[in-house]
Design a protein that fits this description.
Elements (H helix, E strand, L loop, with lengths): L5 H7 L3 H13 L150
Length: 178
């Protein structure tokens, strides 16, 4: 049997109505070299790309509104000018991260660690900081209206307390020397 007979042998086993199609497919096939495409993610918003915990460290200026980053380790990452409004940052490690001018309004930061984080000029209006750790964080010029502080470790290392009167206001400075 010659190598040219292989398609005829295969075609004889197929219904006559489909032989023409298979013949064109078998004889018309050619090898195509695979190609790899790459593109920049700059300028994409959350509805265009899902952010994973470890795929980047510079989130500056990005729209992360409503994004779920719970449980991620984003320590030291740059969120300057980013929109994190209504984002879920529950139990997220943000030690040393920078949030200068970032929008964190309505964000859930329950159990988040923000040791040494920079939140200068950030909008935290209505953010939930229940059980969060802000030890050594700086919040100069931050909007803190309506923040939920329950059992929060304040920047000076004190506890906000719990209940409706819980607050870190008055405890936003560095810990006293000691």
């Amino acid at each position: 049997m010659a190598s040219g007979d292989v398609p005829e042998i295969v075609l004889k086993r197929v219904d006559e109505r489909r032989r023409d199609f298979l013949k064109k497919l078998i004889l018309g096939s050619a090898f195509v070299v695979p190609s790899v495409a790459s593109f920049s993610m700059a300028g994409l918003s959350v509805d265009q790309v899902a952010i994973s915990c470890a795929n980047q460290t510079d989130f500056s200026g990005q729209n992360l509104h409503g994004q779920n980053l719970s449980g991620c380790n984003l320590a030291g990452d740059n969120f300057n000018g980013a929109n994190l409004s209504n984002a879920n940052l529950t139990n997220t490690h943000l030690d040393g991260a920078t949030f200068r001018g970032a929008n964190l309004s309505g964000a859930n930061l329950t159990l988040a660690t923000l040791d040494g984080a920079t939140l200068n000029g950030a909008n935290l209006q209505g953010a939930n900081l229940t059980d969060a750790d802000l030890s050594g964080a700086t919040l100069n010029g931050a909007n803190l209206q309506g923040v939920i502080w329950s059992s929060t470790t304040c920047p000076d290392g004190t506890s906000s307390g719990s209940g409706p009167r819980a607050t870190c206001i008055g405890h936003l400075g560095p810990p006293p020397p000691g």
